Amino acid sequence: WLRTLKYAELIGDERIKAMKSKHKNDAEILNNLGYRFRRLHKNVPGGIYECNSRCSCNKQTCSNRVVQNGIIAQLQLFKTVARGWGVRTLHDLPIGTFISIYSGEIFTSEQADERGKLLGDEYQADLDFFENINNDSEEEQNGGILEQDDEEEDESDTSPSSSESGTFI
């Protein structure tokens, strides 16, 4: 928990500054930062450092072990009418409940075809926009307009920044 607090201080989190100005100690601040009842009620810009094997807490009851406990919500993959595949929960969840980690690998169309043939699984998800490290989509960076590159792309360019690159996860 202290790592979460120290990182939030380092990046200048406004909530931490406000709490420090009210002379709150680290324990009081930590009670208002991160998980409450195994749910995330506020964004923590620096991320949350969960308890681990070096902690003396009880793995089964620790309220700071959420993501590492895995998926607890029932999830369903479904086909939408106009948007491809989606994921949804089968039951209503309280706000801030951890659902799942959604991650993937980005590669070109050619790499996707090669890997699909090699592994015998040719299902791929086609990305139509990318997010940068600040979590801003290309659309937000360009004032709400996604730019289309009409010029022929250099074949040696495998950069995932182009909508023409046929990149998959």
Automatic annotation (TrEMBL):
It comes from the Eukaryota. One of its GO terms (cellular component) is nucleus. GO terms for molecular function: histone H3K9 methyltransferase activity. One of its GO terms (biological process) is negative regulation of gene expression. Residues 158-169 have a biased composition (Low complexity). Residues 130-169 are annotated as: Disordered. It is found in: Nucleus. InterPro entries: SET_dom_sf, SETDB_methyltransferase. Keywords: Nucleus. Residues 136-157 have a biased composition (Acidic residues). SUPFAM superfamilies: SET domain. The keyword Hydrolase does not apply. Its main location: nucleus. This is SET domain-containing protein. It comes from Rotaria magnacalcarata. The lineage of its organism: Eukaryota, Metazoa, Spiralia, Gnathifera, Rotifera.
